[in-house]
Amino acid sequence: MSPEEWTYLVVLLISIPIGFLFKKAGPGLKRWGAAAVGLGLTVFTCGPHTLHSLITMLGTWALIQAQPCSCHALALAWTFSYLLFFRALSLLGLPTPTPFTNAVQLLLTLKLVSLASDVQDLHLAQRKEMASGFSKAPTLGLLPHVPSLMETLSYSYCYVGIMTGPFFRYRTYLDWLEQPFPEALPSLRPLLCRAWPAPLFGLLFLLSSHLFPLEAVREDAFYARPLPTRLFYMIPVFFAFRMRFYVAWIAAECGCIAAGFGAYPVAAKARAGGGPTLQCPPPSSLEKAAALEYDYETIRNIDCYNTDFCMRVREGMRYWNMTVQWWLAQYIYKSAPASSYVLRSAWTMLLSAYWHGLHPGYYLSFLTVPLCLAAEGCLESALWGRLSPRGQKVWYWVHWFLKMRAYDYMCMGFVLLSMGSTLRYWASVYFCVHILAGACLGLGLALGGGRRSLRKTASESQAASTAPEKLREE
Q: Which domain of life is it from (predicted)?
């Protein structure tokens, strides 16, 4: 593990006991205490580069105050433009930010764009209410008021997920501050249930990264090895990659659970990142609050089992970095300048790559995803109805195997980063996933899959993504 990874781990572990301290605190102590801890961590790990997050926050707040009716698009343009400046500092001869500064900046970008969107929704709702002449019941997820500068500051620097996620909306943050009976929320038991696999994942990460170091792929001797060895090597590399993030995200979720952050009644049917999709009245007494069943789906960032064992590439994306996937679906995919599912996915993957950084490997990996989505959707729609029940079971495992190999292949671009290293490795395995995906797409089209199936996939995906909006309107 690198020194940066040890620092991340220490920050994540420290956040767990801190969470227990804040859980039963009052709204004021929660707000300013959590902000003080988060700002302290930021200054400690980022030093003077903390100024970048502060400038981003102040710029977004100014846009919200100046143009509340269109601040979502303006905030998206401002924060993403600042990311470009932030990553070009070394080219401009300015000090290069620390990796921790980059992590804070990434999460802050998501939070500020979400906040601007929620303020815009509030402004539009208020205008509709004024035009209609009568007051409506509060809409699910709608903010009670436009946050002040200090409220925006406290949300931006709340220590929860400040470097590793999970992403959470301002409404989720407010609900945490205003929990009526926080002592009734379960913490220790769900924390232990969530944390138990993390040590195993950590050991597997250390073992796999030791036996199959990534640096070996950068050496000339690696490409003298037989083709089966080169093909196999991407499997343990992606395995180590998954184990590393499993540990980090589970620890981050445990920090939230310790604080009671993101706890909602099961009846609210909360979604990762988005929060409740059904209105649940707050309990009127401690006894009623204690009788409710709660979950922490709002801050759930990883579904380890389904990430590894779901069948499709599309499903694998949903179970990985779940709160960020919700953000991408809500604020990027839905406003994409295209109607096709594959093209909208390509637009979303392009902006996701940009959000991650400027390394060419990100773009090579993320922009391979739409090809895989098109291939699996087209071939599955052409074959599924022709298979017997036994054939469908066989297809499930074949499809799962190909899905995992596609993610192994794409992961190499994500970890090698440079265009030369990524293309060199992909060329050494003869661009097998690109060729296989193209062949599957061609076969699916030949067997009668194609536009109809892709439109169906798009409509299903769009229906799923707009379901919370329909619930909010109701």
A: Eukaryota
Using CA atoms, how far residue 263 sits from 9, 113, 114, 223, in Å, is 24, 23, 20, 50
The count of residues in the chain is 474
Q: Is the dihedral of CA 151, 155, 159, 160 positive or negative?
A: positive
Q: Are strands 294-295 and 264-265 parallel, antiparallel or unpaired?
A: antiparallel
Residue range 211-238, pLDDT digits in tens: 999 999 999 999 999 999 999 999 999 9
Domain boundaries, the chain: 3-178, 303-466
Closest-CA residue to 404 (of 275, 217, 238): 238
Cα separation, 468 vs 140, in Å, equals: 10
Q: Supply 348's token pair.
A: 């979303």
| Span 321-366, pLDDT tens digits | 999 999 999 999 998 888 888 889 999 999 999 999 999 999 999 9
Task: State which amino acid sits at residue 26.
Answer: G
Omega before 166 cis (within 30°)?
A: yes
Are 416 and 322 a contacting pair, CB within 8 Å? no
